[in-house]
Amino acid sequence: MKDLTSPFYISENIRKSGFFFKKNLGQNFLKESSVARKIVDSLDLTGEECVLEIGPGFGALTGFLCGMAGKVIAVEIDHFAAGVLREALEDEANLEIVEQDALKTDLLSLLYGREESYGAYKAVSNLPYNITSPLIMRLLDIRPRLSSIVLMVQREVADRLAAPAGGKDYSSFTAQVRFLAECEKLFDVSKNSFMPVPGVDSAVMRLTPRETPPVSVKSETMMAEMIKASFSMRRKTLANCLSSYFRVDRGTASDLIVSAGIAPSARGETLDLADFARLADAFHDAGIKR
Ligand code: SAM
């Protein structure tokens, strides 16, 4: 199992390859092997799995993954980082490096457009922080195929994902993600574990995609719209948010909200998933669309 976290390895490769850290790609590389190992251990690998890694960088996680998974597909946007990784792990027959933008690549066909099949499919990433939300949603888009997703995120994002309804950290993103997956904060990681040192601390989360949603809804699309709509204007009442988002008059919105057992003067951030589900069904039954 290779440890590709040492500051010496990182500095040497920067010198040799012409690589430089790009802030816009969220390039803060992990330089503590114990943390990298703990992240990979959180995937509970048996050696049979195919693991999709987003943003392998110089391979802090990838080295461990190659020794512990059946197959590793690593998607890296940075050509220089991919070159360093290819050279460092050239002996690993189970590694495939895909030089692409993970926000644009068809992730599902990367996993399934191949002849071999694996016991389970899992994903892992020390996420580039500037694209955390869209990447999480992309991974959740392929959730029926993934049994586990382990992610390093900014600590603030971890707190948001674990936040209870009504709290200051609860957001539309929290509700959307929790509808699709169980979210568990595993451990904190100090900003000093990275090179270069970022401005904030991090935390590792496990998202376990749900086989069935925690609340049943007639339309998952309407559920997603309803969550977005309810948080669309944070200081406004639910009636105002929904009438403006769905372009219906305030009276119609209020009647539908009441029919879902909720006060039109409530605020979106106080609603839990069951509330959003009743609201989504009420608007769906009334034939309302965005
Ligand atoms: N996994 C490495 C580690 O733990 O040291 C690097 C993590 S660094 C926080 C994020 C990595 O994601 C960088 O290598 C960066 O180039 C890559 N990256 C950024 N945006 C990406 C994208 N859209 N698609 C694929 N990789 C991306």
Question: How does this model look, in words?
Answer:
The chain has two domains: 7-209, Rossmann fold (3-Layer(aba) Sandwich); 220-285, Helicase, Ruva Protein, domain 3 (Orthogonal Bundle), CATH 1.10.8.100. It is built from twelve helices and nine strands. It has helices at 7-17, 33-41, 62-68, 79-88, 107-112, 132-141, 155-161, 172-180, 220-230, 238-246, 250-259, 273-285, and strands at 29-30, 50-54, 71-75, 95-98, 121-126, 148-154, 181-189, 194-195, 202-209. Strands 4-3-2-5-6-9-7 form a seven-stranded mixed sheet, with helices on both faces. It has a two-stranded antiparallel sheet with strand order 1-8. Strand 3 (71-75), helix 4 and strand 4 form a beta-alpha-beta unit. 43% of the residues are buried. The mean pLDDT is 94. It binds S-adenosylmethionine (SAM). S-adenosylmethionine binds next to strand 1.
Summarize the entry for a quick read:
The protein has 290 residues and is α/β, with parallel strands linked by helices.
Helix content: 25-40%
CATH class of the largest domain: Alpha Beta
Bound molecules: S-adenosylmethionine
Mean pLDDT: 94
Strand order of the largest sheet: 4-3-2-5-6-9-7
CATH superfamily of the largest domain: Vaccinia Virus protein VP39
Low-confidence stretches: none
Assign the CATH architecture of the largest domain. 3-Layer(aba) Sandwich
Q: What Rg is obtained from the alpha carbons, in whole angstroms?
A: 21 Å
